[in-house]
Design brief:
263 residues, alpha/beta
């Protein structure tokens, strides 16, 4: 892998009606100790003040780029458009309501370069809609296999970074949910295992009525990954869901710890 002191990192951020959170998300990127990045924001036709807020940042920071889809098409299409526009050596992901800690990029890129890894991720902390800590940290196996990832998405979308030099630009599926899991599965199918930076480098926001807080929606979209992404028949997909439920209920909780204090 070509090693540079600060290779360009392209940050992929889709958004839709994100006026409540987008400014804080952008500021968390601007506060990075790692400075060689571009933030590509693709707006899925917001109807609130999202565009106005982003344009204020664009005018003062040339590293931030704003684009808008012609019609509302879903998060997958928005992410894919951002990936197409990316010019970086690495591609990272950050949704419009999540946050990065200041040393996120510095630590993660250094980890990738020192260990010669084309892909990595990190742990993350959970916050609520108002940004208040939920005192929960989500971790993952220190060596994550494709088989483990197949039955449970241990990798938060806001934490993954991959090398464009190694993988090329990985296309995002047009599915409206779980595109991140499908990207990670594509990556691990090629490299077999992945290693995280073993610390929390981001804040994941759990919002009311979101898929993260809706177990029924989670099951529906995970079934869709097996049925349509892997192209399994219904019986095999249902069997995979049994493995997913077992992992989700009995194994993944072992990688979630309660924090003693808040943010």
């Amino acid at each position: 892998m070509l090693k540079q002191e600060q290779p360009l990192v392209s940050i992929i951020t889709p958004c839709y009606n994100s006026q409540k959170f987008i400014a804080e998300t952008i500021k968390s990127v601007q506060n990075q100790t790692y400075t060689n990045w571009e933030m590509i924001i693709v707006d899925d036709c917001s109807t609130d003040k999202t565009e106005q807020i982003i344009q204020n940042f664009v005018q003062s920071d040339s590293r931030i780029h704003y684009n808008q889809l012609k019609c509302n098409s879903g998060t997958g299409i928005a992410r894919n458009e951002a990936v197409k526009r990316a010019k970086g050596d690495y591609i990272a992901f950050l949704d419009s309501d999540d946050l990065w800690k200041p040393e996120k990029l510095s630590k993660q890129i250094k980890f990738m370069q020192e260990k010669d890894l084309p892909f990595t991720f990190s742990f993350y902390d959970c916050i609520d809609e108002e940004g208040i800590s939920l005192n929960r940290r989500v971790e993952a196996p220190l060596v994550l296999s494709y088989y483990q990832l197949f039955f449970c998405n241990y990798i938060g979308n806001l934490c993954g970074i991959y090398s464009v030099d190694y993988f090329g630009k990985i296309p995002i599926t047009p599915f409206r949910k779980r595109q991140d899991w499908m990207v990670w599965l594509s990556i691990l199918k090629e490299i077999r295992t992945a290693r995280p930076v073993p610390e929390s480098l981001a804040y994941y926001r759990i919002r009311e009525n979101s898929m993260s807080s809706s177990k029924g929606s989670l099951l529906k979209h995970n079934f869709g990954v097996y049925r349509f992404f892997h192209k399994f028949n219904i019986v095999v997909s249902l069997c995979c869901m049994v493995g997913f439920l077992f992992t989700q209920l009995l194994i993944k909780p072992r990688y979630s710890q309660v924090l003693k204090s808040g943010m």
